[in-house]
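Before the break, one more example. Copy the sequence into your notebook; we will annotate it together after we see the structure.
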Amino acid sequence: MESTEPTHSYNARQVKVGAAVIKMMSRVTTWFYRMTNGVIGGRFLKGTDVILVTTTGRHSGKERTVPLLYLEDGDDLIVVASQGGMPTNPAWYYNVTQHPDVTVNRRGQQAGMVAREVKGSERAELWPRLVEMYADYTDYAARTERTIPVIRLSPA
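Here is what the structure looks like once it is written out:
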């Protein structure tokens, strides 16, 4: 179960530095992932698998690609807009809520998918599986007042 009261929120300096580090690491990971079809960048800490998700920028209309951890759920992929427990949702979350058609790169295999946020009982069912996959989600949820969005990517 997620906490609604942050237990150890990030301070303003940590948010600023953390956002810059996340952005830089995302760019580096994306570059290596693309160059090696996921041989480099295809696994995150503790061996969790990574995909590249390309969204359409909600303001710019430009393609934006982010590396994300994922959980398989049948033909669907489940991703989490955690941003390490930062106080705001990541930009890609707002992009997929505005433009749900995305492209997923899974170790060099491209697929068109449609994103939708899961809520209520569906989210409650998925959250423990996501935490089992990547336990740090528990800490991320404890750091923020927001409910961390869970997104289902389904084949287009």
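Helices lie at 12-36, 91-98, 120-133, 136-143. Residues 12-155 form a domain with the Pnp Oxidase; Chain A fold (CATH 2.30.110.10). Try to locate both features in your own notes.
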